[in-house]
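Notes from the 1:1 (GR / supervisor)

We went over the backlog. Supervisor wanted to see one worked example end to end before approving the batch request, so GR pasted a single chain during the call. The sequence is below; no edits were made to it. Supervisor asked that the structure be written out right there so they could see what the output format looks like.
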Amino acid sequence: MIVSFLGVITLPLLLSIYISYRNFASELEQSYIANNTVILEQLVHRLDDYFVQLENDGLSFYSDLLFSPEYQLANTEFIQHNMKLRKLMGLYLAHKETNSVLFYTPLNQELYVINKALNSSFPAAQAIEGRDWYRHAVDAPDELIVEPQHRLTDYPAEYRIKSNVPVFSLTRQIKGYTPEVGVLTINYELTRLQRISEGGMSNPDEEIGLWTAEGQLLYSSNPETTALSPELLARMQGEASGSFEYRAAAGAEAQRLVYARSSHNGHLVAKLIPVHVIVAQAEKTRIINLVIALGIVLIVIATTAFISFRLTGPLLKLKRHMVRAGEGNFQMPIPASQSDEIGEISREYNRMIRQIDTLITDKYKLGMATRESQWKALQAQINPHFMYNTLQTLGSVALDEGIDELVRMTHALSDMLRYSLKAGDQARLSDELRNVEDYLFIQMCRFEDKLTTRIEVQDEVRQWTVPKLSLQPLVENAILHGLEPSKLPGEVQLRCSVEGDELCIRISDNGVGIAPERLAELQAALEAPDMLEPGGQERIGLLNVRQRLLLMHGPAAELRLRSVEGQGTEIEMRLPASQADADVPHEGGDTDERL
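Structure output shown during the call:
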């Protein structure tokens, strides 16, 4: 009843917190998107102003030089050459972020190079005509070409152009009154774009970037960002600004992509905002609400417990005394100081246990003790076949339920139990191997892929006799003391063959092995198997098998132990060869199809 009462209070409270959190998070997300859209539109205006400045710098090469009277009236190429260098140097110095200025005239195949380390021209520079920026300008002679972010690589060392700095470039074809035609490209480093873009970031987990109208990257705060995919670019077409949910990959954290497009050149400014950044304030509010709810629940629990204790305390005390009386303790009456119904019940209970105590005599107690002893004796006589029948019943239930692995495990365990109950001290080797296989199957279900087994048996030895239950303890030792401590996948091998006139059985594992001192101790114990001293389960199992071998075959039977610490252990059993007699019990037919 108390749990139900707490549920009635807690569930509506938690539901209210969840609904308020969802509503607040949704409103917060819409507000966050609207604010960031305004910020990106402001960034677009600043970037437009910046790119207009850069475009005007390139146009000044027309107005200030090629169309100027001084340049047209210059009577020597030397004067025109120096005027070009001065104007190109002016373009280089116009902005701090300018990396280099290149002007190529295909008529005389001359390249002018202006950068921090050089202010000169180079003849026979026709290799420039293979550059992308030159070909793009030639293909679109009346347009300003914006080259996306790239590095100035593969230029001759004499040009002294830095190749380790990413830049973007503005390239245009230059035409004058004269037949002279050239291509001007100005390479700008990203520092100015970085400063402008960082003005739109309010959280270090956000990412912001600038792309051309075709989706080519100009700048991104994330160095791993590349060009926009066609699918992503298509989602941003047609609108000057907008937002949508975006996931970088399946299973990745959801992000909100907010973008704005420049009406001047079509450039895209986009901002990736993780959802956890947007709803951070809502998360804080939810935590506060959960803390308040937890406090309310604790207060309710404390109040309920106090009231419950006041009401049920006397009843619980009466119950405890009844339990003790049921255990035979009639010497603890209940203090009955209350005058209500519970007090009356307590007084009647005290009178009752006094009467019961006077009725229990020594003879009666002795009779009870005798019957208890008889009962325990009957319990100890439960036939082990009941457990076997129970396992068969469990197997049938598992088979009906379609639990195949449990069916096999139950059958394996019941087979092992039946085999252990079988009369006789000797068994055919085939029956022993079947018992080992049942044990290994159960262990493989336990260890799954960490345990593999291999059993190799010559056909002619299957009918030979061995001591009953002599192989399974050795296999169990290999698993428990060889493989299990290593915590790594391991293998147990069992090989049976005839060597001369002896049956040779080898059981090996690739587990932790045995330390040299412990190995010497075990070998000494095997040489004197009648000295069965405490010393570990593996020692008792080995000595038990060794003693039974001696009882059955005498000194002709051998049990040898070899081990290398860290590599594994091998136990070798050698028995005089003997065919099974007709009176040796046999499980199933003459062959074991599972081997």
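Supervisor's comment: Residues 449-576 form a domain with the Heat Shock Protein 90 fold (CATH 3.30.565.10).
Batch request approved.
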